[in-house]
Amino acid sequence: MGSLGFPAVLEILELIQRRDLVAADEQIIALEAECSAMASLPSPPPSSSSPSSPSSPSCRQTRDVALLYDALLAQLWAVVGESVPSGRPYPLLRSVVRVLEQEEAADARHPFGIPGRPRGLRRRWEEAVGRAAVERLGQVVVGGGLGPRLAALAGRAVGDLGMARCHVVPVYPAGYDAFGVYAKGYHRALAQQLVALAQRPLAVPELYLLLDWHSNTYTREVLGHPEIGALLQAQDLGPLLPPETQRGLERSCIAAVKVRHGGHRGAPGGTGMGTR
User: Fold this and answer.
1) Is 130 in the same domain as 87?
2) Per-residue pLDDT tens for 101-125?
């Protein structure tokens, strides 16, 4: 890559901006290794340019590496977010996987002693998948009340997981459990949406609908969807609503029905608390 310095940093930034992500990561790893080698050299007598000074070359180069990684990760996670809605094979995703593999290998070589290592990009990739799912469901805009919104959220989740199964998951090595990661990401994103809806003032029919969707419709129409259900059977996703939130909705539903019917117990047709 040549000698350390500002031109080398600009060269790597240009690679990142062009989304030549594998080459950029290779050069960042090499730059990091050179910084580590410089830091291990005997320290000169204390002066304004010593390694302990914030303006010393080794400190500047360490900061350069950190900034370059930030820029690289921003592009990696942008590609992750673009791959599912593209609706087709997304070649850049292979570059993301290669970078993850390179970084895992670098972590294994230098687990301790280098600033920023281990970077744990596999874990951060999982977090990026989750953020992308939250963003996708947050883009769902539909009028007509709670029922259409729940249906639209379920449709987006099923559609995206179907795209992930066809075009995204095959890019990842088997050990990544990629479909499981995407399923958990969308499950948690749906959970956020449901918790937000549960915090709104809801009439009795909406309370009943939300409880029924949580306990029955989600299991049937999302987890049991023919395109993705078989792959989700082994996933221990858990409930969408926290138990206390669910119990609070059930209490609100029962109390509202009692008021409406002058003290009679129970909601018409039940509250959807059990799974059918």
Assistant:
1) no
2) 999 999 998 766 677 888 999 999 9
Q: Which helix (H) or strand (E) holds 234?
A: none
How many domains does one find in the chain? 2
pTM of the model: 0.83
- For 178-213, what is each residue's pLDDT tens digit? 999 999 999 999 999 999 998 888 888 898 899 999
Indicate if 131 and 250 belong to the same structural domain: yes
The secondary structure of 125-156, three-state, reads HHHHHHHHHHHHHHCCCCCCCHHHHHHHHHHH
What is the domain extent for residue 65?
Answer: 6-40+53-118
pLDDT digits (tens, 9 = 90+) for 156-174: 999 999 999 999 999 999 9
- Boundary residue ending a domain (88, 118, 148): 118
- Residue 94 CA: distances (Å) to CA of 3, 71, 84, 118, 180: 30, 18, 13, 22, 18
